[in-house]
Amino acid sequence: MAPTACLRLPFLPARARSATATATPFSPPRRLSLKCSATNGDNSNPNYISISPGVESVDVNGLRRPPAPVSTPTVPGARDPNWLPRPLTSADAMEADGKGLKVAYQGCAGAYSEAAAKKAYPNCETVPCEHFDTAFQAVQNWVADRAVLPLENSLGGSIHRNYDLLLRHSLHIVGEVRLAVRHCLLANPGVKIENLKSAMSHPQALAQCEHTLTGLGIEHREAVDDTAGAAKIVAEHMLQDTGAIASSLAAKLYGLDVLAENIQDDKDNVTRFMLLAREPIIPRTDKPFKTSIVFSLEEGPGQLFKALAVFALREINLTKIESRPHKERPLRDCSSLLKNFDYLFYVDLEASMADPKTQNALGNLKEFATFLRVLGSYPVDVNEP
């Protein structure tokens, strides 16, 4: 099977998207309708006609009667614009199985990110991208509808590059998917394990298989951009002394043999991926939701404690907290001679933005945070990895 070419930055069309006008809620004009007298509660005169809702009533002889008191209907949208439902977007209307979706991911065909995309949207069309940033741009420039990118691994920890890219781009997290990673040792047909002197793969995959590779006598490591890319290089160059650490799917795509399966040092190896889109989804409260935010604080004792307290006091559980240096303000001015890093805090809340207590907590945090942004409110992946 011919390998799929990765999407490169120069070919991304820079299509400008017109700014979406914000709809202003308004009350529709009241219409006058003719109704029979029975609808007005007056059955004594069958010739009586009422105008509803009206100012006066008339009978067939043209005589006017006193106007009946009419209560003005209550229009909640006129009082509170937030009461009105938000119009559905194309993101809301997509089929659950991903039919009609183009999903971008980093890596070559056969990458674990592609498997995550297929798990999230079984019938989607996957779009391989050369770099993480390319996948973000593919969605932002309307080349793809979604992007599936790794956020953290149970063994290797967080993928910091994607945390930084979340702030650089204006995409929204609309879901998550957990994928069990099962590393395989691949090689060209006819090559045995004892022939291998080197292993090639993504740096995290190499780290996750460190002890197993040493036990197999494979001492040299060679890092590349992604696992499937390593399989592609081994196959294209017909390497005889180098194996690739990748998925069994990559072995099928590039015509390699699987010399060993599940070679990761820890068998419980799970990667959590985020699903990104141009538009946010409508949060709900009838199913488990997660909300991801990022904020920064002023320098001072107890500031982080104060920030976390706004959630603890409302019994909102935090499932993750990650700090990253603020790239736009790497050093903050302090009263002391030492200049400390200015940090951004990424936090995952076990809560939905549709819940008033979540909104109240963020409103409280906004009162003293120097920066606050909601990255997304999305369903929790409750399926087995």
UniProtKB/TrEMBL annotation:
Highest taxon, organism lineage: Eukaryota
InterPro entries in the cross-refs: ACT-like_dom_sf, ACT_dom, Preph_deHydtase, Preph_deHydtase_CS
Gene Ontology MF term list: arogenate dehydratase activity; prephenate dehydratase activity
Catalyzed reaction equations: L-arogenate + H(+) = L-phenylalanine + CO2 + H2O
Residues annotated as domain ACT: 292-379
Any GO BP annotation: L-phenylalanine biosynthetic process
Recorded GO CC terms: chloroplast; chloroplast stroma; cytoplasm
Name of the molecule in the record: Arogenate dehydratase
